[in-house]
Amino acid sequence: MTQAEILPIAGYTHDRPCPICKHFRVSVPPCLGRIEGETIHCSSSFLSAGCGCDDGLYGHSTIGRCACGKRHKPRPASDERPDVEPAAPPPARPTPLDLGLQNAAAMSVVRPPPTLLVPGLGLVGGQGVPHMFAGEPSSGKTIVVQALLLALLRASQKWAGFSLGKLRRRRAVHLDFEVGEYLLDQRYQRLATGMGFQLRELGDRLERASFPAYRLTPDFRDVWRRLMTDRDFLVIDSLGSAAGFSLNARELVTEMMSMLAELSRETGCRVILIHHLRKTTLASGRHPDPERALEAFPNELCGSGALLANLDAGLGCIGREGEPIFVGQFRARTVGKLIPSFTLDVNDVDERGGRVARDPEHPSPGLRLERGPADAFLKLREASSRAREDRAELNYRERIREVLLARPEGRPKREVQLLARLEWETFQRVLLSMCSEIVEEPLPQSGRRGRPQMIVRLAPSLDQIEAGEGPPSSK
Prior knowledge:
Blueprint: E1 35-36, E2 39-40, E3 60-61, H1 104-107, E4 116-118, E5 123-124, E6 131-135, H2 141-154, E7 158-159, E8 162-163, E9 172-176, H3 181-195, E10 206-210, H4 221-228, E11 233-237, H5 239-243, H6 250-267, E12 270-276, H7 290-295, H8 297-300, H9 306-309, E13 313-318, E14 325-332, E15 342-349, E16 366-373, H10 374-405, E17 411-412, H11 413-419, H12 424-433, E18 438-443, E19 453-458, H13 462-466
Parallel strand pairs: 6-12, 6-13, 9-10, 9-11, 11-12
Antiparallel strand pairs: 1-2, 2-3, 4-5, 7-8, 13-14, 14-15, 15-16, 17-19, 18-19
Helix pairs in contact: 2-3, 4-6
């Protein structure tokens, strides 16, 4: 840098370079304020304004002379000078993410088992990912959740023969997206009567909303936080109606379940989902054994597999009208062990708790769920299955008789099968069971490739044979 580039400041012309770095006026001191002995040079925070030395010109000695030839005190820092704005604080370093790692010593601590709401059901209390009750329509899943919820809110010691966990009065909200307030409230009233108290006694510990406008999407996150704050349970019936989107969308399902789990950890409220199965196999009889049907539940849940991955306890309800409710577990995330299956009988009771006969036209004042063994359900289902098969068999036989009575001389076998509206395998089986009533005769010179066509007619009864009559006529 030349002398022509030296600028006069405060009436003083700098004609000497910095005695340390030998530089004239510079905008960025090349020595960057290094300390050598007692001299601090080219450092703006120690320059004095009284001698004309300014930021970026010459350094000066805090004890000896400045480069300008004068002795003076060090220049105050910028945050002590009223004419200079204090420098902005350096940006805060981001807090590193807690990885949540624990070493082997921490892993070796013997931990107490999780606290269960109902030990026999494997339902863990407190905050966490949602629980689920799943089943086909009219399988009893909603009434099971309602009865269990009343017992927990009432702080009862037992429910359906199960000992409940720590007794304390809790609060819950039931969001109804498909039943309606008339049936839902009526069932709550009857269940409470069956337990020996009046529903109004719970006050605001149990609240209900039917067909609300909010859905399980991030747009309503604050609404769900308000619903879960200061409550112990949130029942959503049913999940498919409350979601607001297709449950086959894996990303949206994962986002929804994560939101419920995060809000549960934030508020301490546990979510209980009521969910449907796909319209497939259980009702059609592909799994007539309820234990085998329960094993198929993880693959039968309506929606994406992300539902199962984000559940804590999953319980399945199986049953039809007139049957007990078969209850079993298909998911045990926290406990790690499935509960033994059992049945729940729904019994009609009066105001004093005594059993009464069921009358569909005049519902009883109360309902009570009583636990029974799973074997009883299996025997009842086998008996009812055999009864249905017997009724169907009698119906098939009657169809064939009507077809043959319309033409006493007989009909071709295939024609009888079509007129009776039976599948070929079923028709053959029923004909075999009617061997004492049916006569099959080949029709000569009929059929293809030498196979005779069979004619089927009703065989004459013993009375007709003794009287010398032929087969019965249609008259």
